[in-house]
């Protein structure tokens, strides 16, 4: 957690004035437990918000300028919303700018502000540092203006701004989890209609351990958009059997099996199989968790990674090595990559007594087998965006 007293001092040192009128907001990062690359296919996902994230301090100004600064990055900017556009040199500031521009498009008005961020999420690690910046901004600005806060709307606007302003075709999972997370609960979200259920994460002595490969997610934008296009191709082929089909998540494994021959391209067929089988795994995982059947939950995590590796082909050597090594440690029920892939993090279900041994052994073996050093975080599940 950020030290608010210190952050307020930095704020006044940077922007002048007193601490009066400064308000503080927080939005978490997220970890996805299972259901990867299913969101933009209208399928199920099962993410949870983390206890670490982005803190934002803001204070109203008398003009319409918005001044952005961060404890993490040197780039600062002075923005007027009416003329704001994507600017490469604005770097991270494009995220908060984009979300405010898209809120303004919906008719919400904003005055001028001084704004300071402090991020605790490693960037490019697949723990949604960008969704966290987007949501803390959306939530904090809406609250400061006294606009009504609808968390689902904020998540949708953040996603829209990333798709249209930033040009990356992400699904809704990250923004939704960051907006709607709840302490000690994972979120079962059905992405085609955004209905969701908060499921208590009771793991009888087991903990989620996040392993950061420290391999930044290279190529992720182009490969991500390519996977989306392949899923759309699969839908187009399958329409011969299901004329109204719009998203892969609308059919089940048996329906795909019976009609796979309609997809002539082996790669596209593999992509479709992953999405539909992964969807099924999400529902089975939730059932397992509710029934306190953690062994089954762990097995489904392992199957998810295998499928992401062999059918969806979004893992990389570093993710595969980390999962392989994790599964050799006693007391580990499951392990898989989490997020978009191509680098970033894994999540493992580890017995509380084994966490130290896990971090030591996996860290050592990972460093021996790759060119990177790993970092580990014990993943406590926290709340979604809020005022501090
Ligand atoms: C990224 C995207 C999400 C989702 C995952 C893969 O995190 O932002 O929308 O598609 O990848 O499951």
Q: How does this model look, in words?
A:
- The protein is of the alpha+beta class.
- The protein has a domain at 4-200: Ribosomal Protein S5, domain 2, CATH 3.30.230.10.
- It has helices spanning 4-15, 94-105, 129-145, 151-164, 173-180, 220-238, 253-259, 266-290, 294-310, 317-328, 355-369, and strands spanning 23-32, 44-45, 47-60, 66-70, 77-79, 113-119, 185-190, 195-200, 206-212, 332-338, 345-351, 375-379, 386-387.
- The strands form three sheets. Strands 5-4-6-3-1-13 form a six-stranded mixed sheet, with helices on both faces. Strands 10-11-9-12 form a four-stranded antiparallel sheet. Strands 2-7-8 form a three-stranded antiparallel sheet, with helices on both faces.
- Helix 2 crosses helix 4 (151-164), helix 3 (129-145) crosses helix 4 and helix 4 runs antiparallel to helix 5.
- The chain is globular.
- The termini are close together.
- Bound molecules: alpha-D-galactopyranose.
């Amino acid at each position: 957690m950020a030290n608010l007293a210190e952050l307020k001092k930095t704020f006044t040192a940077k922007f002048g004035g007193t601490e009066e009128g400064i308000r503080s907001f927080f939005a978490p990062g997220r970890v996805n437990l299972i259901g990867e690359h299913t969101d933009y296919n209208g399928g199920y996902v099962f993410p949870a918000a983390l206890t670490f994230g982005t803190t934002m301090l803001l204070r109203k100004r008398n003009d319409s300028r918005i001044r952005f600064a961060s404890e993490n990055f040197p780039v600062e900017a002075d923005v007027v919303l009416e003329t704001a556009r994507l600017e490469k040199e604005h770097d991270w500031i494009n995220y908060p700018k984009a979300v405010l521009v898209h809120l303004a498009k919906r008719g919400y008005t904003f005055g001028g502000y001084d704004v300071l961020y402090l991020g605790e999420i490693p960037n490019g690690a697949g723990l949604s540092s960008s969704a966290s910046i987007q949501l803390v901004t959306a939530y904090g600005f809406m609250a400061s203006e006294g606009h009504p806060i609808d968390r689902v709307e904020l998540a949708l606007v953040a996603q829209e701004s990333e798709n249209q302003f930033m040009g990356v075709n992400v699904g809704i999972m990250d923004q939704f989890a960051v907006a709607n997370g709840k302490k000690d609960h994972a979120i079962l979200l059905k992405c085609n209609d955004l209905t969701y259920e908060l499921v208590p994460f009771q793991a009888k002595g087991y903990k989620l351990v996040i392993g950061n490969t420290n391999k930044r997610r290279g190529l992720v934008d182009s490969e991500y958009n390519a996977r989306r296009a392949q899923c759309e191709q699969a839908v187009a082929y399958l329409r011969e059997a299901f004329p109204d089909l719009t998203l892969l998540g609308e059919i089940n494994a048996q329906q795909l099996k019976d009609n796979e021959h309609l997809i002539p391209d082996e790669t596209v067929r593999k992509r479709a199989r992953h999405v539909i089988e992964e969807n099924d795994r999400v529902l089975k995982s939730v059932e397992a968790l509710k029934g306190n059947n953690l062994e089954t939950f762990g097995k489904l995590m392992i199957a998810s990674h295998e499928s992401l590796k062999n059918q969806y082909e979004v893992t990389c050597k570093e993710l595969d090595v980390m999962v392989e090594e994790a599964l050799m440690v006693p007391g580990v029920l499951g392990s898989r990559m989490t997020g978009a892939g191509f680098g970033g993090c894994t999540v493992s279900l580890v017995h509380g007594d084994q966490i130290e041994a896990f971090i030591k052994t996996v860290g050592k073996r990972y460093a021996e087998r790759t060119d990177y050093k790993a970092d580990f975080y014990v993943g406590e599940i926290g709340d979604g965006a809020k005022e501090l």
